[in-house]
């Protein structure tokens, strides 16, 4: 794919977000990253612009406010966004969190890694996989058959 | 001693062993009377004399021939009034002694009717030596007022002795199992004491007992005197063919030969017994003995009889009073004990603390408490195996909270082995199946019997079979494997004990459930805390690593110190991260619930390999499964245990080809043999690594304890073996290490007892 793609990242930690930016940069492709540090503002934005659906959403779980689960619930329960792949990235390997994420229909769960270069590689893998390789079901846009 | 009164005339055989025979003999159908009076039997319907004692001439001045089959009026018109009066009184009610002048003599007359016959007894009314002068009964009761029961007993026998002039007066009490004890005695000095003697129930057969219940008093004035036969119109000289006269209420009734034999053996010439009743059943007897003949005149007998009936009422009320007091005391001490038990966190521990008081409350010498988790014994009890047997037998008993036997060997056959120590058992069950059971044991009777006299100094004729000593010996034999019977009070006490303890167990269980809930909640909290902590602590670590990374990315810095610093930072960050992981794993190792199942060692080892190496073993590593077999445990835990041991075996190994041997052993072949049960299977993991110095064999299991440099042998948090031990111990197992430096290490672990 060569066209520019939008991804949305929910991440309150600057260093972790920087890793994602580094990964995008290293991929040398045009990825537009929109960052939110609170789930509430992400939900608010998407609620306003139904047509601005991103290609991929990366969620951190634990952060001030409703956190990743709040965003996840909103996304998966809303028919406009339920087909967008959501990848949870958390430091927690708590099986309860993992189970909970999948139960709320997250598409994948990853543990954050300590070592930055490994973390960059991981994010690059995630981006390439979900942006290029996975075949997704796209809801026909409203008005496409009009 | 009046132990053998009233056995039937026909009961001539002296066999003591066959009590049941004695019990069947009709001792009330007599055909002769004592020679101290005269008996006239008149048919009630037509007032014709049916029978008369052979000595009638002596008393009424007429021969039997002249009186039998005649109207009573023709015998003496003085008896007509009595016959009239008998019409007005109920059957068996004796018209009390009244003076009557017959045949120029002053006589006493007593009469009653039974089965259509009127029985008229005549006795001499004057006996100058024995006319009671004082107010005997009044004085007696004045003297026993407000005394302890023991003193009451003693006062009674003392006063009756001085009043009647008998050589020996005893108070004989029947126990719950019908055997008797002499509880008070007053005697002439030269006589052997009987105080404290016990007698088998069979010494006073049931029919005799029945007569004691019907009559307040029974006197035998001369055991050597010939009895006087009753004559009837049908056959003057042989009464035996005739239907016998029911003499149940006749005071002059003759003595059974068996009883005479008994009295003679004791050198007793005369005796008198006064019944002490408890409601309608016989509680005891006041037994009076005299070495020569002794006639107790009617007035004196009346006084004794009155004493007997008043004493019965008095003692009954005293016993009720004492029972109440006893109940109050028991309730108080029970409440006190329960408070003590409750003051212990652990119920069993509390019970153990009060064991001696509990045992004494039920007058027992041994106590066992058994519940799922506890078994403790106090005092004289059977061994543990026998206790288990008893508990098993109890579980087949009908559902009841208490059970008791005073002869354990008749209840459980293995009881014979220890009946000489523990003869009586009372069990108190708390709850149906769980909740535990209390066993109270009583030592055999003969260990608690007090014997006042010296058995070797018996002055009596022991050639006959019937003597108090022999009776006592027989009793001792009977109770060799029996304990003091459990009384109604004991059972009452046991029941209230059961309900108090049950309430406490329920309360404890509720408390336990609460505590468990609390614990479960805390556990969840702790789990969440551990994850959150590791999350929050790792975040700054990641940040640090991130900036180190950025520094590394700067071009053009080739300073050695810089590079060294960056490397050092990265290493420390990695170690910190490992430690956090280890802490998290350790915190979880002890808490998650075990899911027990059976699986083969091969299965779990192969999963370990997959986890550790993704299926492909490193080239220089070989894992050999030596002896496969089934093990029981939580699969995930066992996998974690083995993974840790395998990865250690590889990590701490400098050999070119690293070999790990894993297998199952019988416990006896391992160093664990002396710690665990023989059937337990033991898993071992053996390597050819660097070995562990024996002085560190305990330390290796401590958390974050590393024997080597932090960074040698691939680092690691130092939590691995701690986790291993924790998981083994959670399975109820043990872990042990054997090692030789530079040759290798073997870990042995068990997973608790096989189900």
Uncertain stretches of 5 or more adjacent residues of chain B: 1-27, 235-242, 451-465
N/C terminus separation of chain A: 27 Å
Strand/helix succession of chain A: EHEHEHEHEH
Q: Indicate the structural class of chain A.
A: alpha/beta
Q: Residue-averaged pLDDT of chain A, rounded?
A: 86
**Approximately what portion of the residues of chain A adopt beta-strand conformation?**
15-25%
Shape of chain A: globular
Q: In order across it, which strands form the biggest sheet of chain A?
A: 2-1-3-4-5
**Helix-strand makeup class of chain B:** alpha+beta
Helix content of chain B: 25-40%
Rg of chain B computed from alpha carbons, rounded to a whole number of angstroms: 45 Å
The strands making up the biggest β-sheet of chain B line up spatially as 2-12-4-3-7-6-5
Q: Quick one: how many beta strands of chain B?
A: 27
Describe the oligomeric state of these chains in a short phrase: heterodimer
* Helix count from the secondary structure assignment of chain B: 19
Q: What is the rounded distance between the termini of chain B? A: 66 Å
Structural account:
The complex is a heterodimer of chains A (146) and B (755). With 146 residues, chain A is of the alpha/beta class. Chain A has helices at 14-27, 39-48, 67-77, 95-103, 116-133, and strands spanning 5-10, 31-36, 56-60, 86-90, 108-111. In chain A, 42% of the residues lie in helices and 18% in strands. Chain A has a five-stranded parallel β-sheet, sandwiched between helices. Chain B is α+β, with helices and mostly antiparallel strands and 755 residues long. Chain B is 39% helix and 21% strand. In chain B, helix 10 (298-342) runs parallel beside helix 15. The radius of gyration of chain B is 45 Å and the shape is rod-shaped. Residues 1-27, 235-242 and 451-465 of chain B have low confidence and may be disordered. At the A-B interface, helix 1 and helix 5 of A face helix 15 and helix 16 of B.
């Amino acid at each position: 794919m060569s066209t520019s793609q939008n991804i949305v990242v929910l991440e309150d930690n600057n260093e972790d977000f920087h890793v994602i930016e580094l990964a995008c940069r290293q991929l040398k492709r045009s990825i537009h990253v929109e960052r939110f540090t609170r789930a509430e503002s992400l939900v608010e934005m998407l609620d306003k612009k139904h047509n601005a659906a991103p290609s991929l959403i990366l969620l951190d779980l634990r952060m001030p406010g409703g956190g990743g689960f709040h965003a996840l619930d909103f996304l998966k329960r809303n028919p406009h966004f339920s087909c967008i792949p959501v990848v949870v990235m958390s430091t927690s390997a708590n099986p309860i969190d993992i189970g909970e994420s999948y139960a709320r229909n997250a598409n994948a769960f990853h543990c954050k890694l300590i070592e930055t270069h490994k973390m960059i590689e991981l994010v690059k893998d995630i981006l390439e996989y979900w942006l290029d390789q996975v075949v997704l079901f796209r809801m026909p846009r409203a008005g496409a058959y009009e | 001693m009046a132990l053998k009164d009233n056995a039937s005339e026909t009961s001539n055989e002296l066999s003591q062993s066959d009590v049941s025979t004695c019990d069947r003999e009709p001792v009330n159908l007599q055909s002769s009377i004592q020679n101290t009076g005269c008996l006239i039997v008149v048919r009630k319907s037509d007032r014709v004399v049916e029978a008369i004692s052979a000595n009638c001439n002596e008393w009424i001045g007429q021969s039997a021939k002249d009186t039998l089959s005649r109207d009573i009026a023709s015998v003496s018109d003085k008896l007509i009034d009595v016959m009239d009066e008998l019409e007005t009184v109920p059957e068996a009610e004796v018209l009390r002694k009244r003076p009557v002048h017959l045949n120029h003599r002053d006589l006493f007359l007593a009469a009653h009717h039974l089965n259509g016959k009127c029985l008229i007894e005549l006795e001499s009314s004057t006996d100058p030596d024995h006319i009671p002068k004082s107010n005997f009964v009044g004085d007696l009761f004045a003297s026993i007022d407000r005394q302890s029961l023991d003193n009451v007993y003693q006062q009674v026998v003392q006063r009756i002795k001085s009043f009647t002039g008998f050589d020996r007066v005893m108070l004989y009490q029947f126990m719950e199992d019908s055997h008797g004890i002499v509880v008070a005695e007053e005697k002439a000095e030269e006589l052997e004491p009987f105080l404290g003697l016990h007698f088998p129930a069979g010494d006073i057969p049931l029919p005799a007992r029945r007569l004691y219940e019907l009559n307040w008093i029974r006197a035998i004035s001369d055991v050597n005197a010939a009895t006087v036969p009753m004559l009837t119109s049908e056959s003057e000289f042989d009464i035996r063919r005739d239907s016998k006269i029911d003499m149940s209420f006749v005071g002059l009734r003759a003595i059974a030969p068996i009883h005479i034999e008994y009295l003679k053996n004791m050198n007793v010439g005369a005796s008198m017994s006064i019944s002490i009743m408890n409601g309608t059943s016989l509680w005891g007897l006041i037994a009076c003995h005299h070495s020569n003949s002794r006639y107790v005149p009617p007035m004196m007998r009346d006084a004794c009889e009155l004493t007997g009936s008043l004493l019965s009422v008095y003692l009954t009320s005293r016993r009720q009073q004492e029972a109440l007091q006893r109940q109050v005391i028991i309730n108080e001490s029970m409440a006190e004990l329960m408070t003590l038990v409750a003051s212990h966190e652990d119920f069993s521990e509390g019970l153990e603390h009060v064991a001696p008081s509990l045992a004494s409350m039920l007058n027992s010498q041994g106590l066992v408490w058994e519940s799922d988790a506890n078994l403790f014994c106090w005092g004289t009890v059977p061994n543990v195996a026998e206790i288990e047997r008893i508990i098993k037998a109890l579980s087949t008993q009908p559902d009841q909270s208490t059970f008791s036997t005073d002869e354990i060997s008749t209840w459980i056959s293995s009881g014979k082995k220890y009946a000489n120590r523990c003869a009586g058992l009372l069990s108190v069950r708390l709850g149906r199946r769980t909740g535990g059971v209390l066993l109270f044991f009583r030592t055999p009777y003969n260990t608690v019997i007090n014997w006042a006299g010296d058995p070797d100094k018996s002055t009596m004729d022991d050639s006959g079979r019937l003597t108090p000593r022999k009776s006592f010996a027989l009793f001792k034999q009977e109770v060799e494997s029996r304990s003091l019977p459990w009384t109604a009070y004991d059972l009452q006490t046991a029941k209230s004990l059961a309900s108090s303890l049950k309430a406490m167990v329920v309360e404890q269980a509720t408390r336990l459930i609460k505590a468990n809930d609390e614990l479960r909640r805390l556990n969840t909290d702790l789990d969440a805390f551990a994850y959150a902590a590791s999350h929050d602590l790792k975040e700054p670590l990641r940040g640090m690593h991130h900036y180190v990374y950025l520094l590394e990315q700067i071009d053009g810095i080739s300073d050695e110190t810089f590079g060294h610093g960056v490397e050092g930072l990265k290493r420390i960050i990695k170690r910190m991260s490992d430690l956090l992981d280890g802490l998290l794993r350790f915190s979880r190792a002890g808490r998650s619930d075990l899911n027990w199942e059976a699986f083969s060692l091969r299965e779990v080892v192969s999963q370990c390999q997959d986890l550790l190496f993704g299926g492909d073993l490193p080239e220089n590593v070989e894992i050999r499964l030596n002896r496969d077999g089934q093990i029981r445990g939580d699969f995930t835990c066992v996998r974690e245990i083995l993974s840790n041991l395998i990865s250690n075996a590889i990590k701490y190994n400098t050999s070119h080809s690293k070999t790990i041997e894993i297998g199952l052993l019988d416990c006896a072949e391992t160093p664990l043999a002396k710690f665990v049960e023989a059937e337990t299977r033991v898993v071992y993991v053996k390597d050819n690594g660097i070995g562990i110095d024996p002085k560190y064999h305990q330390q290796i299991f401590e958390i974050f304890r590393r024997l080597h440099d932090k960074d040698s042998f691939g680092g690691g948090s130092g939590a691995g073996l701690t986790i291993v031990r924790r998981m083994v111990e959670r399975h109820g197992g043990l872990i042990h290490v054997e090692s030789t430096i530079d040759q290798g290490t073997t870990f042995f672990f068990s997973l608790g007892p096989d189900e």
